[in-house]
Q: What sequence folds into this?
């Protein structure tokens, strides 16, 4: 049995839950600060996942990949001095990992394996 992998939908769901926004908000043309930061966190999470690419995230968020790359660079600099921002990234990462664990549990239940 292959363990479940993180998908773009998981990243988007975790970020949306962290920032209390919808996926439609994330992909909207709005430049509101909260949405710009949520997109920034999404780029960080995608980049931390080896098999996900910013190019694909750019399609989902309807953003140019160079904009996301620039956002990622700003996020890395910001992580050095902005503790609340780091906490929000950790919160989104934790939500994403919880989604992954839930997927694994569902997969085990579907196969009839012991979940304990």
A:
């Amino acid at each position: 049995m292959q363990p479940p992998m993180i998908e773009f939908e998981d990243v988007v769901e975790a970020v949306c839950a962290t920032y209390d926004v919808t996926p439609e908000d994330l992909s909207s043309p709005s430049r509101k600060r909260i949405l710009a930061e949520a997109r920034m966190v999404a780029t960080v999470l995608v980049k931390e996942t080896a098999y996900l690419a910013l190019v694909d995230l750019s399609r989902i968020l309807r953003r140019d990949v160079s904009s996301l790359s620039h956002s990622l660079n700003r996020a890395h600099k910001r992580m050095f001095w902005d503790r609340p921002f780091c906490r929000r990234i950790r919160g989104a990462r934790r939500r994403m990992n919880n989604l992954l664990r839930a997927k694994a549990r569902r997969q085990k239940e579907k196969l009839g394996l012991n979940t304990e």
